[in-house]
Structures are given as C-alpha cells and as structure tokens.
Records
---
Amino acid sequence: MQDTIKKLVIVGGGTAGWMTAALLKRVLAHAVDIELVESSDIGIIGVGEATIPPIELFNKVLGLDEAEFLRETKASIKLAIRFENWRAQGERYYHTFGAPGRSQAFCHFHHFWTRAQQLGDTSSLWDYDLNYLCAEAGKFAKLEVNDPVWEMQYAYHFDASLYGQYLRKYAEKLGVRRTEGMIEDVALDAQSGFVETLTLKDGRQISGDFFVDCSGSRGLLIGQALKTGYEDWGHWLLCDRAIAVPSERFEKTLPFTRSIAHPGGWQWRIPLQHRNGNGLVYSSKQYSDDEAADVLLGNLESEALSDPKVIPFRTGRTKKQWHKNVVAVGLSSGFLEPLESTSIHLIQSAIVRLITFFPHAGVRDELVDEYNRQSRLEFEYIRDFIILHYKLTERDDSEFWRYTKSMDVPERITEKIELFRSTGALTKENFDIFLESSWLQVMLGQGIMPGDYHPLADTLSEKQLRDKLTNTRQTKMQPMDQIPAHDEFLEMFTRSR
Ligand SMILES: Cc1cc2nc3c(=O)[nH]c(=O)nc-3n(C[C@H](O)[C@H](O)[C@H](O)COP(=O)(O)OP(=O)(O)OC[C@H]3O[C@@H](n4cnc5c(N)ncnc54)[C@H](O)[C@@H]3O)c2cc1C
C-alpha cells in the first residue's frame, strides 16, 4: 500500500494543467508540494472558449476578481447557445441557462404552457425566460434580485490560452513550481506498476508520489504508460475532426454562442471582446479537410485573422480515469465534441472530485473505484445529452443526418424522449450536469411536443391559466428596460473595478 502523498506532479500546462494546479494548491495548500511540467515545444491545444455556469463558482473558490478575470481573458457573457438548422434548415431554438416561467412544486411551468397550447395559445416557451429575452436583445446585467424569477444564470466565453496564463500566475504565486521540459520517458515501479519518475529530454528527472495527467489527447501517463484503454463512442457521435479560425469581432458582442448545423457537421461562433472564435466540427466521412475549410471560411461573416487549423479527435473516454497513482484530467481523460461546451467543466469537476477523494494516506481501491464510477457516469450523461441533438433532427439532406436520425441510441435517451413525448414529464439523474430545463429546451426545440401535461395544470380555470401566462411574461419583461447592452455592461463592469 502506498504511503502519504507529499509530492504531486502535474503533467501539462494547458487549461487542464493550470486549472488543476490553481485549485489543488488553493485547497490543499501546504499539505502537498506541487510541480507542473510542460513543454513549450509541444504547446497547448489552444481552443475551447465557451463554458457553462459552474465556472463562476470555480473562479469564486479561487477568489478571482470577476472584473479582472473578464479583462485578463477578454471574456464575454454567455447566456445561451443558439442552435440553428439543427431540427431542419431555417429553424432555430435556444438552449439557455435559464428556466422558463416560475418554478413551482411538483408541476413545472411547461405543463401550464402545454395545456395553454392545447387550448390554442401560440406563445413560445422561451417568451417566459429572461435569459432568452436578454440573449435576443443583446443585453446583460448582474441583477441584484430578491425574487428568483429574475435570476439569470450565466457563463463566459473566454480566450482559453489567456485563462491558462492567468491561472499560471495565480498558481505560481501560491507556490506551484513550473518546470519547462519535454518528457521523454515514464518509469513505473516494477512491483506496484505506479508511475515513479519522469525523465526529460535533457536528462533531468522528476519524481512524485501522485501524478495528474493533463498532457492532452496524447494521454502520456494514463494511456501511453499505464495503457488503460479507450472507449470509443464514434458510432453515436460521428464527428472526428474540427477546423478552427479566429475572425474579426463584430460591432456588437452577442451574449450567446451560435451553433450552426451544416450537412456534414456544425459550426461554432463564439464572441470574445477582441475577436470571434469560429470552428467547424465535422465528420471526415462527409467532408475532406479542404471542403471543411471552404464551409467554415464561407460562413465567417468577418475577416479571418489566421489560417484555419485542423484538429483531429477521437470521441470517447479513457476506460479508467484514475489508475494506480495517476488521475487523468482534461483531454487525456476523454473528449466529447464542444456542442454543449462541457470539456472545461469536466476539468473543473474532475479536480473537485479529486479533492473530495484525495488519497492523503495513499491510494486505496475504494477511492479509485468511486472516483471512476462518478467520472464514468458524468461523461456518459453528457454524451447522451449531445447525442440527443443529433437523434432528434428532421434533416435528411446528407448521409450524416440520415444516419444520426435513424441510429440506435443508448436506451435511457429513448426512455427520456418517450416519457416527455407522452406525458411532458422530465427526469433528473444523479451526476447528469444538465438539469430538466436543458433536456426540455432541446427536446422542444428539436420538435418534440408533449402530448399531455401534469394534472395540477388543470386546477386553474381557462381564464386563470391565461392570466398566469400573461403575468409571468410581464414579470419576466419587467427588468428589461434597466438592463444595458452586453457591450455596455462589459465596458462598465471591467472599467469600474
Ligand atoms: C475543436 C475543439 C473545440 C473545443 N471547444 C471547447 C469549448 O468551447 N469549451 C470547452 O469547455 N472546451 C472546449 N474544448 C476542449 C478544451 O480545449 C480542452 O478541454 C482544454 O483546452 C484542455 O486541454 P488540455 O489542457 O487537456 O490539453 P492541452 O491544451 O493539449 O495541453 C497539454 C499540455 O501537455 C503538455 N505536454 C504534452 N506532452 C508533453 C510531454 N511529452 N512533455 C511535456 N509536456 C507535455 C503540453 O505542453 C501542454 O502543456 C475544445 C476542444 C477542441 C478540440
């Protein structure tokens, strides 16, 4: 059995490496000595710009000043993702971080709305969502509210390379040691199979009790040295390449990500303060790299700022995210296409889990098993939510969409769809980071209208039901006049502090 963990080594200085260094040092402080090794010859992946709301908590735990963070990372606010051409060409819907209506015990707002629809109401469910209203109007404010009806959940778009550098300064200040160098050899203990020593190209050696593999998709420790194996999900998620290019900023910075479906994949547009991030995620069976570049560059709407960069990837996860004395964090642990901006969140969640199950007194099977169980479930639920978008398409204009529409999907997705379709009911699983409101918006947005609603929605008379909807809509609209344009907010907020 391994002894106390005194020295922890992080391999890699991308977003995963520096997020890990910052949070572990902040929380574990003097309990462990932390060294991070990275190679500027290899560099970082350098994409990954959209996040989901829990990132705000990550920054808070680190004690980062939000205005400084926005300035340093050229960030903008993200209220939603707008999906265009996903259900059918010309159609669009939002997946916002908000929730429509007002929450109510036992019976979600959408049940009342469904009943109203059956009675002839023509409003959209999103009309009752402040995130949607602000996204459409290009507005944002940090509202100080005492009624949750006006709470706006938000995340950020940021320059991931700048975020990494910002956290590097933070972590080094707390005492994390950084070593520059290319790791050429990984030595394992002959008996335990634990990683013992890393040898750099110039011969220097780095030893540790515990290692966090943040080496990116090459998985230097978890995949290459420990050979944990990889579970491939390419039969459900056909995209296996991305091509990315920054472009000039627009006059207005939109407070949402755009995801635009094309015949062989989909394109992201992420507005930052100083530029747009763009990319096309695609299937190599549908587009060659040259065709993908044409699709991307042909749909930019502003001047490209560099040549496009192709990034191949393999969708899936490493079979054991913790094995022996190595935990994989970031791309080394697996990859899911950035359709719902979940990779940086998976980094955050892996670090929090590592802290929760930290092997202070040495690696124990019970800790490893629980860590791996939770990590697997979290990955699988995100995978399922992404598959949902492809499965529910009505498109048949390419082999790509014809396949995704008719493919067999994991049973729990079908169960969720059928439950919602027939009753309007939604379920929430442990370790699924997407709440009912997320499943609701994507299912509705992609054309599933519930055939029934909860009986509690029948307790109102028809007039009461109409009044409820009208009042909710008016209440949601109430703060709109005081909420400034998104750019105005960024300017005021980042300047005033
Ligand atoms: C196309 C695309 C779009 C994405 N979009 C999003 C998004 O919108 N939102 C989101 O949350 N995530 C997104 N991601 C994921 C996100 O980019 C990554 O999760 C994040 O950048 C973390 O990467 P990483 O740190 O694991 O790996 P990397 O950035 O690849 O870093 C690896 C590190 O390991 C070091 N290293 C490797 N080998 C060695 C060696 N032999 N010796 C020394 N050092 C070594 C490298 O020097 C580097 O420092 C996207 C990913 C892709 C591919």
---
Amino acid sequence: MNADPIAAFYRWIEYAAFGKALERRRFAFLSRTACARRVLILGEGDGRFLARLAAINDTARVDVVEASAAMIELARGRLPQPAARRVRFHHQDALRAPLPGDSYDLIVTHFFLDCFAADDAARMIATLAAALQPGGGWVVSEFQEPSGRLARLHARLWLFLMYTFFRLATGLAARELPPYAALLSRAGLVLEDQRQARWGLMVSQIWRKPAAANVP
Ligand SMILES: C[S@@+](CC[C@H](N)C(=O)[O-])C[C@H]1O[C@@H](n2cnc3c(N)ncnc32)[C@H](O)[C@@H]1O
C-alpha cells in the first residue's frame, strides 16, 4: 500500500464518507493513554491521533512506524515543538523492518490491521505482542463485520467500497479484514473494553497483556 497519493486528502475523504465517526473511534480510549511511557504507533497516518496523545501525555516517548513519507510529513506538521522532541518517526514497512524498540507499555493501531491479509496480520500481531510489556495496553480502532443480518450486510457493503477504493488509490493488496480479534487473543492479549458504532461497522477496543504472575 502506498498512501502518498491520498495523504493530503485522506482526512477529507474520511469526513465525506463517515463524518467524525472514525475520529470518535480513534479517541474513544484516549484518556487511558495519558499515563503511558513508551508508545508504539503503527500506520499513524496524518497525525491526528498523535497530536491528541501529545496534548494529554507530556512525558511519553513515542515511536511511529509509518510507510508513507507524505503521511509522516503531515503528522510532523501537527506536532507542537516540545512534543516533537519525544517522537521518533520511522519511515518503514512494519511487515519487513524490525521494530524500533522491544519494550512498550502502549501500542496503538487505528485502522491499520485492516491493511493486511490474515497471514501477514498474524505475523505482525505476534511480533508486536512480544514487544508489549506485561500489563501493557493495545488500543485498536477497526472495522468489523457484526452479527445480525442487516448490520452485516451494511458492513459488507462499506467494506467492499473501502477495499475497492484503497486498492485503486493506493495499490492495497488486502481484500478483506483479517481476523484481528482472534489473532490478538491468540497472542495472549485480553479484551478489556470496547465500543462499537455505526451498526457495529466500527469498533474501538483496548486489549491488555496480562501482567506476569507474581512469583513468591
Ligand atoms: C487506512 S490508513 C489509517 C491511518 C490512520 N491510522 C487512521 O486512523 O486513519 C493506514 C495507514 O497505515 C500505513 N501503512 C499501511 N501499511 C503499512 C506498513 N506495512 N507499514 C507501515 N505503515 C503502513 C499507511 O501508509 C497509512 O498511513
């Protein structure tokens, strides 16, 4: 996927399609990120979440892994100077390059896991889960196919439109959602809380890696 061609319009395409609904998903668990110290954000996009995180958390050191140079440029532009010193941008493919660090207490993926086929998502989630400290959190915003006939039909229509758009505009290879919830669960994470919107088409979730058992 090459998001460079759409980076400048990405926000406006999103607002045209969904209004502020995706924005609300990204920020649903923002308050729970206020105490994080080492944060890894994958596929940040144009920096709207990063700017909000920087505004409520003035100590975290943040690694951003993003494959699009144009998105990184936009994200940099949204960061106030003092916060910029705590953020490192890594212009790299999260599937191929090693992670910039090996111990985070917060991982953030907003509308990122949906960019991958199931086997790639499985590999990436396993790698990321290993880099999450025991007790650490993983904030996810995603699309999903809810249960219920009409809600599922509604979601499938939107997913078809979105995958078609991103295939044409960015060369996205994935064709359908990976089973990210099952993969997170298989990686040992526990779903702590979730909020759904738009007939279940969108969901914000916070997953947690269980704290290591206390050894007497
Ligand atoms: C659908 S956009 C989501 C952007 C933003 N997180 C949001 O909430 O809207 C996916 C983002 O992930 C980035 N991306 C896709 N595949 C990637 C990869 N393999 N490695 C790093 N970034 C990737 C894209 O460049 C894009 O900015």
---
Amino acid sequence: MNQPKIKFTLLGTGTSSGVPTISCKCDTCVSNDIRDKRLRCSVMIETDTTRVIIDSSADFRQQMLKYNVDKLDAVVYTHHHFDHISGFDDIRAFNFTSKKQMPIYLNSKTLESIKSIFSYAFGKAEQIGGGIPKIDVNIIEEDNFIIGDIEFEIIKLMHGNLPVLGFRIGNFAYCTDTNYISEESLSKLKGLDYLILDSLRFTPHPTHFTIEESIDIAKRIGAKQTYFTHIAHNIKHSVVDPTLPKNINLAFDGLEIM
Ligand SMILES: [Zn+2]
Ligand SMILES: [Zn+2]
Ligand SMILES: [Zn+2]
C-alpha cells in the first residue's frame, strides 16, 4: 500500500506527570518557554480522509479542543499506563457528534486494563447519565493494520518488563515508553525520515531511556531527524536541545511533521 501524504502533530511530549508538574517550582516548571509546557504523550496522524491519534492521554480533552479536532476516525494504543489511556472516557464526545462507535486498536493486555479501569463502558454501567464511551475494539498484536488510508506497522518495544507497541507509518516511526528495542525491531526502523523516541531525563530510570541512551539508539537507527518525547521536567528545552547531536532534537507540543 502506498502511503498518502501524511501530517503528524505531536499533541503531547511530556512524561506521566506532565510539565509543569503540580507544585514544582524548578527552572523548567516555572519557565515561560512554550516548549517547556508538555501535555501527556499523544500524536495525531492525518491524511486528507483519515485522522487517527495514538493514545487517549490524560490531556486528551484539552488536546482535542486545542487542535480543533471535530472528527476522529480511531484511537490506537501503545500500552495501558494511565498517562496513555486516562482520556478514554472523553471519547464519548465523538460518539455524540459522529453517532458511531469509536474504533480503538490495541493489544489484548491493554484492552484488559482498559476494561478493568473503565468497567462501566463494558457492560457494567450502573446508570447511563452523561453517556459512556461507545467503542469498537480491534485487537492488534503484531500484524500490520490499516485505518482508512493509513498503514501501520507494529514495532515491538520493551518498557521495563512490559511489552509495548511502537508504530511505523511510512518513513515516520513513533516509539514512546521504552528502554529497550530488540535487534529485530531495530531492523524494522531502517530508512526513516523521522523517528520520535522516548527520552525521559539524564538520570537512569527502570522503564525509560535516558537522554544518553536515546542518543545511542537514535544514532544506530539513523533516521534523518530524531525527536525525543516523554520528556520530564528535569529537562529544560533551551538548555538541553542545543547540546544534542546533529539531527537529534527535543520534540515539543504542537510540532508538525509532514
Ligand atoms: Zn508514559
Ligand atoms: Zn519541575
Ligand atoms: Zn508507560
């Protein structure tokens, strides 16, 4: 399948707590630089006919309003951590306007967690007052899948001991929430124009790459341009971005890639 012209918009590039972090007065959290204002991680993928987002983040509602998203064709999930799924309930707003179920694409582990956290949306609602998200579940584990005119290739990643999904769409790849990428997955990331890669902070973390580790992996993958995402408040954009190697930069909310 030939990929159509696709636009990618990074709706959120922050770690799980978001930046600024509640009650923190560090240099980044008090910064006026808009690149230091990071909502929770999500990316919007658009063609002329199809619009998909990866992860309904904790800031999903705000992201949909900020980017004037009046129509959404599907939500694809990387994994079940709360910063990536907690906007799930607000999917119902799209049910109201589209009069259709929202297709969601996720692996069985992520579905299991969403079902237990949002059990009311899966046949256990006590009372349907303001409505519940109505969804059409599509299980993805390892095979490529197509939404509208966009083809997704699954890139398996490890996030501590949790297997999570990365995605390649044409020459763009989105690999958040990871601290290990197997040789097999690395081989699927050859010839990229753009790579979005997890990079939390400088100090080690059990489930995320550090800046140094991300630089190593980015160099191995060799995309024409790499952007780091899932960035913690320890990283001030104007201080760290200029120190990164050529063709590697920190992403920021609202960054558009075409
Ligand atoms: Zn996360
Ligand atoms: Zn802070
Ligand atoms: Zn995670």
